[in-house]
Amino acid sequence: MYRSFAVPALLLLAPTARADTAAAVDLHSPVFWLGAFCVVGALAMGLVLGVLRMQRQRLRQRRAELLRVRRERTKLSALLNAIPDPVFFKDATGAYEGCNPAFEQCLGVAEGELLGRRDDQLQNRPEWAGALRDMHATQRTLSWAQQPNGERVCLDIVQAPVFDEDQCLGVVGVARDVTPLREAMSKLHRAVTVFEHCGEGIMVMGTDLRIEDVNPALCAITGYSHEELLGTVPRYLRDGEQDADVLKTLWTEVAAKGKWSGELVERHKSGNTIPVWATIVCVPPTEADGDAHYLSVLTDISRIKQTEAELLHQSLHDRLTGLPNLSLLRDRISRQVGIAQRNHTCVAVLYIDLDGFREVNDIAGHAAGDAVLLETTQRFINVTRASDAVARVGADEFVVVLSGLVDEETSMRLGDRLIQAMDTPILVGEGEERRRFTLGASIGLALYPADGTSVDELLRNAEAAMCRAKEHARNTVQAYRPELTHAVQKRFELTHALRLANEAAQFRLEYQPQVRLSDGVLIGAEALLRWRHPSRGPISPAEFIPLAEDTGLIIPIGRWVLETACRQAARWQGQPDKPQQVAVNVSARQLRQPDFVETIDYILAETGCPARALELEVTESLLLEDAEAAIELLGRLSQRGVRVAIDDFGTGYSSLAYLKRMPVQTLKIDRSFVSELGSDANVAAIARTVIVLARSLGLDVLAEGVETAEQAAWLKREGCDWAQGWFYGRPMAADDFVVTPPVPAEPEPQLQLLPA
């Protein structure tokens, strides 16, 4: 550039230079100064133009540099805005110089509100601020922060200083939301803890079924160490160790559903087999080109299997004797019947009931009863063959099953041997408390196929035969006969009808007058239970009352009788020519109820019947079963004003020692004595003795079954107080109750509520 301006100046000075050679320079010449000025001007212009050109180039370079810086800042800003993690900048004083939108969102504060402020100047100070106070060192901390939406997140914050030639310009910080990572780590920690401490054995296998990892529980189950198991194929998945069909089903289900559960057999290091409940799951690969894994969970079910076996044994065997119970017995009889059908042989069922076993429990207690049962079991086992089945089916009931070439005679002989086995007394206890019990056995026999073709028929018919032996000839063997079934069927039908009668209100009460012998004045009536069946007609109390006792139906029936009789007695109070006292028979089961006295109190209060208008009739044998308890019970009734009469006095065993202590008011002479007063002197003497005994004890006497004027006259002459019978009136409904002049009539059995 300078050269372009210097050329014209040299051309202007050229003539002058040539002239210098001829003459000296004239300094005063205008030409000289004009030329010099031109040369200087040209040089100055060239210099100015050069400077301008240089400035222009510098401006271009500056503009390019600013553009580059602006682009870099734009890229940096875009980068910061694109970073999902919060980023912030602080100067050397700790004041914010900038941040990205993620940081604004994290704190819930706009960048404009942050600029120039420190953490302690913010309204919502960040929770991590206290841990990042040092501005000259790189720091890192974990902190939980609550976002504006209320969600708490875990942030991993890193803060690093920015230096320029050892001068700290400030810090830059980056926060990362590690909440999902923390949750994943927590889950992983829990999974590892479960894996290590789980009671079930866990193993991880590759696609080749080789073990890659196991937990300690699996080592405990198999007996192998962790190192011994790694790289091996589990034994329970080997063809030789496991059933091939089970393995085929296993892998088919895993392939179809991704999971299989079932029972397998593992082998312990000691060689013992271990039943396990296995769950095998296919874990798909996490990457496209990864391999699947198999996760197996094993539970040792040895104890469960053992418990199942014990429970099965308990469910099929008697707890005390260890003999088969009724369920297992039925199965064995069914099997023997099937064999007999194929081989055309017989099956004999002997149903055994021990005679006198209840006395063992009553006298010596249940522990002694258990000892007697154990000894009885051993005796029966010693008598029978190994092929015979002995079972306990009740408290004191046993069944023996014989199969093969048996007949009635052979079975009867075995029954006799079973009875003979009980002849020897059984000793129970030690020392002074040692007791001797001699028990009998009543046995019923039923044969297949003559007496039944099914298990139920054989057991039912054998039991019916046993009941016959117990009723008619104890300590014997009775073979089944068809008529026994008819009796049992009749009893069953009557029991069913009795239940329906109680529900359908088929019962009614009739009242028989009781008069004073001295003047014939009505003093009371006895309530007698009657049952008229819709199709069978009237049914005798002698037939259904014992059945009600056996089935327990006497409790609700007896309560109904008491309520009905007391309600009627309350209606008759104060009415002329009506009974002012009603006698009601109560059964043994009723008196044994723990709340019997409370029941009487409730009925009297509910019906409005005075206590003095109710008389309860009980048998003397019932009172003497437990005399002390009877005295206490009757005493409580007497304290309430309820009268108590001993029914059928003289027909059983009487204890005068207890009788004088019994709080009773009346003795009732049984009808069997009254009916023979005129024909048997001994009977008359007994009746006279009863009257004298009652007088000496200060008791009233009532004679039942008075049918004739001669009987009434004899009783009156001997000092009997009251009488009851057809001579004074038949049993009648409450609405028809009236006392008519005595009319002789043909006697019929008195139907009344009698205790069993």
Automatic annotation (TrEMBL):
Record NCBIfam families: GGDEF (TIGR00254), sensory_box (TIGR00229)
Residue ranges occupied by any PAC domain in the UniProt entry: 138-190
Signal peptide interval: 1-19
Ranges of residues in domain EAL: 491-745
PROSITE patterns reported in the protein's UniProt record: EAL, GGDEF, PAC, PAS
Domain PAS: 72-117, 187-231
Listed transmembrane segments: 29-52
Superkingdom classification of source: Bacteria
Protein name: EAL domain-containing protein
Species in which this protein is naturally found: Roseateles agri
Database matches in InterPro entries: Biofilm_reg_signaling, EAL_dom, EAL_sf, GGDEF_dom, Nucleotide_cyclase, PAS, PAS-assoc_C, PAS-like_dom_sf
Keyword line: Membrane, Signal, Transmembrane, Transmembrane helix
Gene3D superfamilies, per database record: 3.30.70.270, EAL domain, PAS domain
Xref: Pfam families: EAL, GGDEF, PAS_4, PAS_9
Domain GGDEF: residue ranges: 345-482
